[in-house]
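Me: I'm a chemist; would you kindly supply a protein sequence with its structure tokens?

Assistant:
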Amino acid sequence: MTRPRSLVINDQLEGTYHCVSRCVRRAFLHGKDSYTGKSYEHRKVWIHQRLVFLAEVFFVDVGGYALMDNHLHVVLRNRPDLWQTASARSIAQRWLKLYPKRRDASGRPLPPGEDDIEQLADNEMRIAVLRRRLGSISWIMKCLKEYISRKANAEDGCGGRFWESRFKCTALLDDAAVLTCLVYVDLNPVRANLAESPEASLFTSAEERIRGYRARQYTDKKTAMASDDGVLPAGIDPSCDEWLCPLDNKPNRRGLLSLDLPSYLEILEWTGRQIAKDKPGVIPRHFPPILTRLAINPNRWVESAGRFGVLFSVAAGTEAHMKDIAARMGQRWVCGIKAGKNAFLG
């Protein structure tokens, strides 16, 4: 049943959401087409670059992503605390960066001029509209999908839809749901037999976080890691994942979970091995304290992380949180309440 997006997403309140969008034409539209042999892998670069750009422009945190051959997953958190308090000038600058007024001869956008910024910032009614848009989950998805659709259609020399008309959106109601969903998203290539491990899962937040983590460890050792001129060796970029929302709190940024990156990667690695072998396995002794601290049932962890997209539709969280959102939507229940009761504690 199609529901108004406003029943699931409230841009006035902070929330974390799992968003999925699929292609509507033949498969592999941003992977390798097995029928023609033509590769569209470069479109994953487009999507990644666009995500990085939108994370800088919007008041929305990107907590995770996975770019598959015919669909994409993103985990987004809106930040009303930021867009509601931003200055009119900041709103104007961000909007003009998103929709530039001027371009150079090659079509590349030019930085907005002071006159353009001041003129827009002085328009209070317009700024009020743009403020809400820059904090909207629906708008960031629109700006992602529309941009890629136009580029892909231009490359294919055709028109029409590239993506499904609506993206699927699941509200993640608590830390337990956020962690489970992040692991599910990051392990998509492993489950699809496209990669053997998280660090080999290209175009996922896991691979990017691992690459950044290793680069920071590399530079921290201070053992002949830089050349004589102080430049790091090629491929070593400690800041490559800084555009992503950190998992735990940082001095200048609020994290997505009360869980540090090494702990998350340990859970991710172990879970990926169980799913890859198609065996439920046994949770290691040191995992229950981490999982139960986040109100996750360790005995159902592998199933919850492996079948998240099947178990939960509109929302995911503890049974109590699921019932709360059902009441907010004017319903007695929502799909996934039983799964939430089994997967999460509390």
